[in-house]
Write a structure and sequence with these properties.
210 residues, single chain, Jelly Rolls, mainly beta, 15 strands, 8-stranded antiparallel beta sheet
Length: 210
């Protein structure tokens, strides 16, 4: 009987050690956020056509499709807006890359209107690739969340934006970049890509209802 108890004890110790080892191997920046996986896909776009199409609204006419990517080389924040309304609980995923040293990969989410700064503004490598942010209504606002993260020219990143409650979480390549907790969340339903003056590309957009 004592041998059985000893064997069970050693097994428990080994299991605990294994769990600790797994915890130590957890990737830096990894985070558990509700909605980061799963959900029901309600929209997707891989831009395998000659132009953005009827699913999108733009005012400038400067957005096109190039080699299967949605593309813009400078739009002064006019943006291109998805006509399909977002679910309230949602994950939006897409590929993004910049061919400019200035970076500036930008999207807007939960906008109340199809225009710049009508919702949350998320920018990676803004202001000549010096800062990354999540902002509420005003990308220059004092309440924006700032991170020291820049864009590598020509590199393709996988972005994900998740909201299931009052907090907007932004991931790049599966790593949590920033979160914007909001006591009064913006309930707009529009999503858009934007650009100021850089050569940017977006692809493989997926929207999941959570």
């Amino acid at each position: 009987m004592r041998a059985c108890r000893t064997t069970a004890f050693l097994a428990a110790v080994a299991l605990a050690a294994g769990g600790a080892a797994c915890a130590k191997k957890k990737k830096p920046g990894a985070a558990t956020v509700e909605g980061l996986t799963g959900g029901v896909e309600v929209f997707s776009d891989d831009f395998q056509r000659d132009k953005p199409g009827d699913g999108w609204t733009q005012r400038s006419g400067k957005w096109d499709v190039k080699d299967g990517w949605l593309h813009c080389a400078g739009d002064r924040n006019e943006g291109i807006w998805l006509n399909v309304p977002l679910p309230d609980r949602v994950r939006v995923e897409f590929d993004a890359r910049s061919l400019s040293e200035d970076g500036d990969l930008k999207f807007e989410i939960f906008a109340t209107d199809q225009r710049h700064q009508a919702g949350y503004v998320v920018i990676m490598g803004g202001w000549k690739n010096t800062v990354s942010i999540i902002a509420r209504l005003d990308e220059h606002g004092e309440d924006r969340i700032e991170k020291d993260l820049s864009v590598e020219k020509g590199r393709t990143y996988r972005f994900a934006a998740v909201r299931t409650n009052g907090t907007l979480s932004w991931f790049v390549d599966g790593r949590l970049v920033a979160q914007y907790p909001d006591e009064d969340p913006i309930r707009g339903r529009y999503f858009g890509f934007n650009d100021w003056a850089t050569d940017v590309y977006f692809d493989n957009l997926k929207v999941f209802r959570l």
